[in-house]
Amino acid sequence: MKIAAVVNTFNSEKTLEDTLRSLTGFDQIVLCDMYSEDATRAIAEQYHCKIVFFKRCDFVEPARNYAIAQADCPWVLVVDSDEIVPQKLQEYLYEYIQKKPDAKGLRIPRINHFMNRPMRASYPDMILRFVARDYVDWPETIHATPRINGPVESINPKRKDLAFIHNDKASLHDYFAKLNNYTDKELLRRTKKKYASIPYMFLTAHLRFFKSFFLKGGFRDGKEGFIMAYLSFVYRIMLCFKNIERNK
């Protein structure tokens, strides 16, 4: 049984070549581009990708179903343009579809990099990215989880050798831009509240920091762990502030 790797891109030249190099063993690579203005398409052509196009969006979820539908294989591994798929994971997936013919989806752990180092605090960050092409529906809202019509299993997080590597090379400038963009989009899917109290705002933001830095072990990641936890705090407080503004 064959597997296609599906990659969504927009101006991804910084990380794309590392991603595509890690996907060369799959039966097909489908690259769904949002009309990039850099060398993204030229890099994809070097790796003989099937290149398709989708209208430009501020986030990737609206393009997921279309990209998956362009694959010619019954199984699809959805990969972001800044992720690397280890060889052992690729081998595991081919073995998995032989051993589990009734399965329709598989959650995979992910090692996230931040400020050029792997972050223990965000592991295992389980993501549902290996799916049977004809049994998946991906909601178009930001940070949406795909809906699978069938059994879904998970790789044991102890198998770090099978984890995606999130090869994020974004600067802090890029992160703050993402915080602003993503909170705008996430606000659209949240129920409006007439009033967000000061205690609620204080507690929800500080709980995000506490969870990331203490409960999930961000303190073990040093200064980078503190910064990552604080960005989680900022994300939550921005949502609260924007919700108040929206209800005025």
Can you walk me through this structure?
This protein is an alpha/beta fold and 248 residues long. It is 39% helix and 21% strand. The strands form three sheets. A seven-stranded mixed β-sheet has the order 3-2-1-4-9-6-12, sandwiched between helices. α5 (172-188) packs parallel to α7. The model has no long low-confidence stretch (mean pLDDT 92).
Largest beta sheet: strand ordering: 3-2-1-4-9-6-12
Question: What would you call the structural class?
Answer: alpha/beta
Could you name the ranges where pLDDT drops below 50 across 5 or more consecutive residues? none
**How many DSSP E strands?**
13
**Ends: how far apart?**
55 Å
Global Rg: 19 Å
SSE sequence, one letter per element: EHEHEHEEHEEEEEEEEHHH
> How helical, in percent, are the residues?
25-40%
* General form: globular
Largest sheet: 7 strands, mixed
